[in-house]
Amino acid sequence: MPEQTIWYLEMCDAGAHHARPLPDTLNVIECEIPQFALNRFLYALVGAPWQWSEKLEGDQSEWQAMVESDAHRTFVAYYRGAIAGYYELYRPDGRNVEILYFGMVAEFIGRGLGGGLLSHAIDQAWQWSGTERVWLHTCSLDHPAALANYQKRGFRLYDEEIAPC
């Protein structure tokens, strides 16, 4: 059975963030009114090349409840009116913000936009009142530059596991 490596990363101090500027060509807007169908669309659009599919199958009521909760925030990045990427922040305990999903649409990968969008996500996480820690996980099935991008922005690896694909 094929395996993947899953890496868990965290940032426990906003001062550890090595920010990259958001490109002037990228406009990031928070979806202040939750729309589960939009999150589902973004997940499929961004995740297709990276085998994000588990959320699209079966009962989605728990996912919908999470997206519609006060502990969840969604941001969409636009480039000249087209969706270029997105991210979701999730903080169910009021202290630890998970960058739940983060990614660029395939056509926008390699244009130097990802580092700036990730910095935007980190800034939004730290600006969320009460945040004490920002964390995420990625895996070996993700874009080959994903882990390095997270580490360049200041995340440190705190756990690693091998799991079936």
Q: What string gives the helices and strands in order?
A: EEHHEEEHEHE
Q: Name the average pLDDT.
A: 95
Main-sheet strand order equals 2-3-4-5-6-1-7
Which bin fits the share of residues in helices?
A: 10-25%
Under CATH, the homologous superfamily reads Gcn5-related N-acetyltransferase (GNAT)
The helix/strand class is alpha+beta
Largest sheet: 7 strands, mixed
Assign the CATH class.
Answer: Alpha Beta
Amount of beta strand: 25-35%
What do these coordinates show?
- This protein is of the alpha+beta class.
- The protein has one domain: Aminopeptidase.
- The chain is 24% helix and 34% strand.
- The chain has 4 helices and 7 strands; from the N terminus they run ββααβββαβαβ.
- It has a 7-stranded mixed sheet with strand order 2-3-4-5-6-1-7, with helices on both faces.
- Strand 4 and strand 5 form a beta hairpin.
- The longest helix has 14 residues, at 114-127.
- The chain is globular, with a radius of gyration of 15 Å.
- It starts with a strand and ends with a strand.
- The model has no long low-confidence stretch (mean pLDDT 95).
- InterPro entries: Acyl_CoA_acyltransferase, GNAT_dom.
- This is Ribosomal protein S18 acetylase RimI.
- One of its GO terms (cellular component) is ribosome.
- It comes from Kushneria avicenniae.
- Keywords: Ribonucleoprotein, Ribosomal protein.
